[in-house]
Design a protein that fits this description.
The chain has 460 residues and is mainly α. 64% of the residues lie in helices and 3% in strands. The chain has one domain. A two-stranded antiparallel ribbon has the order 1-4.
Length: 460
Amino acid sequence: MEKLFKLKEHGTNIRTEIIAGITTFLTMAYIIFLNPQVISKSNEALANVPGAMEHSAVFTATCIAAAIGTWLIGWLSNYPMAQAPGLGLNAVFTYTLCLGFKLSAAAALGAVFIAGVFFILLTVTGARRAIVEAIPLSLKKAITAGIGLFIAIIGFVNAGIVVDKTTGGATTVDLGNFADPKVLLALAGILIITILLVRNVKAGIFIGMIVTAVIGNIMQFVFGMNMGITVPKNWVPHLDFSMFGKCFTGMGELFSAPIASLLAVLITLVLVDMFDTIGTLIGAADKAGYLDENGNLPKIERAMLADAIATSAGAVFGTSTVTTYVESTSGIAAGGRTGLTSTVTGICFALALFISPVVGFVPTAATAPVLIIVGILMAASLKDIKWDNLEYAIPGFFTVVGMPFFYSITDGIAFGFISYIVVMIAKGKAKKVHPLMYIIDALFILMYVITALQTLKILI
């Protein structure tokens, strides 16, 4: 262990690293319950699409992808980080790729696989770092906050706290029915997780979700309320590999899609994952004391390579884009300093494969509060936007509100980036904009132009 992870050099030991690894797992274990619920909604994309995403298949893929990604980042960089299919990124998969672009699950997985391969090429050539550094810090913070609001509104809708009101009334959304037991359970979950977090309880999100799920089970099985809980027909752990390799069969559909849709899919996956990963890496590394005097992270390419490989591997098994988790900071706070922490966390994810029979006992009303709370945590990036300077405020605003208002992460990023270029040109600062930003904006504009032409049937 000493030779592999240089424990003494980093001022740690095996016991501390094991505790840290378990702590990290407990704080992010909610993803193995939540990811299947988010991604399985992709079945709603088209009523008769074959090869829908089964809950059990996504559960299996989530555990495997998390284990692979976490092991890779620990072994390649020796950082105590953990990875898993990302919140926000799974929303892109479901709500943008499947429900938005009407792609089948297989085609969406094909897009994720291609994005992973593209990430690998960008990382090994150093282009990924260059692209990230070309984007102003204020816009990066706005993207993080916008994704947080997008995740939060999904959570509010899943909880029934926010409901559709498109017919009648002065608004398109409204407050849900507090007489609905599912709404009451979700509100209780928000309260429980909030109390645990403000009391600095480690694994507060996970513990809160489990406590809420237990209350939900009592409400259904003791008081007879329908909480959407399903009892397994078979208590033997079921490893479902039904989506394995479907990403390759879906590529035919993906590349037969309109150019505008294909561009939108790839831009979404590449840009969102890029910002999500780099932001989390820097934040966690700062807490661990790994940043150098210039605020840069040594071996960042190795860390980003891990998520790139894990993304493609996860797509093969049947899940959305893999990214580094901010919950890694919980293990770091517990003393984790090396890749041994990641190794332990990865082992925990692998063992989690065998608890699949209990997944049905965690209702949507218990996981929805997690989305809302994570949205709150991600919204903390709002403080880093210079709202008193229109150069940052205008593109920041379009980015942040665009995602939840347009119900699209892609459009939020596009409006933010395009408005940034407009503002900089108007202020006579066009030369201060990185050339790569003009290229990215050109792709966004091209995407919208092609979409408009197709709508007008000028372009087939």
